[in-house]
Structure formats: C-alpha cells, structure tokens
Amino acid sequence: MIRTHGTSSEQERLSGKFCHHHLLFWTMMKLDPIQTFVEVVRAGGFTAAARRTGTPRSTVSLQVRALEETLGVRLLKRSTRSFALTDEGQRLYDKASGPVDVLARALDDLQAGDGVLGGLIRLTVPADFPTALLASAITSFTQAHTAVRFQIMWTNTVMDLVEDNIDIAVRVGANPAQTAIERRLLDIEWAFYASASWLKRKGRPENISEVEDFISPQPILRAYLEKHVLGGVSLPTGAIEVDSHAMARDLMLNGFGVALLPQGLCQDAVMTGNAEPLLPHAGLRPTRLNLTFPNRADMVPRVRAFADHICAHFR
Length: 315
Prior knowledge:
Helices cover 46% and strands 21% of the residues. The protein contains ten helices and twelve strands. It has helices at 8-43, 46-53, 57-71, 87-112, 131-144, 196-202, 219-228, 245-253, 267-271, 301-314; strands at 76-78, 83-85, 118-125, 147-154, 168-172, 181-188, 190-195, 214-217, 238-242, 258-262, 275-278, 287-293. Strand 3, helix 5 and strand 4 (147-154) form a beta-alpha-beta unit. It starts with 7 loop residues before the first helix and ends with a helix. One of its GO terms (biological process) is DNA-templated transcription.
C-alpha cells in the first residue's frame, strides 16, 4: 500500500495545479509551429512573418518545416521570392487560423495570473504616424504591466481586424465594420502650409484654386480630405503625388510647393519660421483619430487597459 501525505483536498489541488501547468506547456509546444505557419500565411512570407513576430527568419522556417515533417505533408510551395499554399496547407490554414487565435489569447490570460495583465497586444498604426507619443505611452504601460507584450505594424493599408488578428487599429476617420468598436483618441486639425522660400517666389494664394505646386496625397486620402476636411471643395491639381505626410512636409519645407497637413506635424517648423500656414479662411474641418477594435468580445482586460492608458496619455 502506498502511503501519501496531506489531505485529499490538498492532493487534488496539487494534482490539478500540476496538470494545468503540464497541459499549458504541452499545448504551447504543439501550438508554436501551427501559430508560426498561420503568421507566415497572413504576412505573405517568411521574412515578413519573422518581422511581425520578432522571431529570427531561420526559426520561422524551421518551425514550418518541422510542422510539415510532423504532419507528413507539404504545406507550402516555396521559391526564392514567393510561396504558395498547397491544398493541404490551405485546408490547415482555414481550419486552424481562428482556433489558434482563440487558444493563444486564452493561454496568455492563464499565464498572466489572477489580477495581473499579461499577453500580446497586436497594434497597427498609419505608416507616418508620429512615433514619440506612442512610444512614450507603450513604454509607461509596459513598465506598469511587465507581462504585456506588443507587436506594432506601421502601414497605410486598412487591415482586416479579424483576419489579420489585430487587437487595436489607430485609424483616421475610418468606417468600421458592423461589429467593430471605435473609441475617440484625439481630433486632428488641418492646414495648408508653404515654406518661406516658396512664398517669396510664388506669393501668398488667396484661395484654394490659386494654389500652385500642390503636393497631393494619393487618391484615397485625397478624396477623404476633399469630403471630410474641405467640405466638398476640390484640392488643386497635384504637381507631385506622395503617400506620406512626412514626405509631403519635407517637400514643403524644401520649397517644392504647398501641402495640406495635420497641424501637429508642422508646429516646430512654424515656430522656427521655416513654414507658414496659408488660407486661414478656408474653413478646414478637423478629423477624428480613433482606436478601432474588432468587437467587444476581443476587448480582453489588457486591450481595454491599454486603450484607457493611451487615451489618457494622448490627452
């Protein structure tokens, strides 16, 4: 007869604790290659997946290869520049991508412990969004909640919050999906700007139609600005077209022409006299910068807490 020490309830508690940690370890070991495979498909390649997950490319490739060997099937057709899903790979992705996200979130929550925020927050922001204030908000949040991790994607592409597994998207005046949730972050004031050297050459325009050498945004943003900022007034014909507020500002500061930009992006240049706002009576309307979430169910405690933090930080 084997003798044991402790009460039966204590033994059950210890046994349950052991089983919980054993199951958690086993599940993560099995989950990693599948999760890596899903990230490769979503990112469109091994290098992009490595960048998005903060994992060496060699590790990403090794995990996918190990998954193929374990399953005994080929999941990806590879070349030096691209890849394509095999039929088996497509079926695995279709069936695994959703459950992998749910399980990863659940494991993150379990690992964090009672009352402790932990796990991954996937955040996407516009490509030329100012970095200093966001970096400050993330740093102060992670100092207070050391078990929280971040993946940040800088892109002007409007990503699908569900398919791309995004927790929070920083968007300017976006029209969310029916199930998405929006929260106001701040309002953006706009103005036309030109450099002192350009004004000396060209003179100061009196209305929008007189603007020359306009530095135009790309068509989607241009249409948005005409509708929501200018109230239906057409922007001037572009002398150049760019997909970056930062590039438009730098072209303007170098005397190329006139740009329509967020005021916060040009405050320093105006204070130093390198740029001047134009057309004060143009009646430009502010636009709203939002935090967008896939749906209420995905606003887990760490995501909600960071949303509260970043809103307070930006104010």
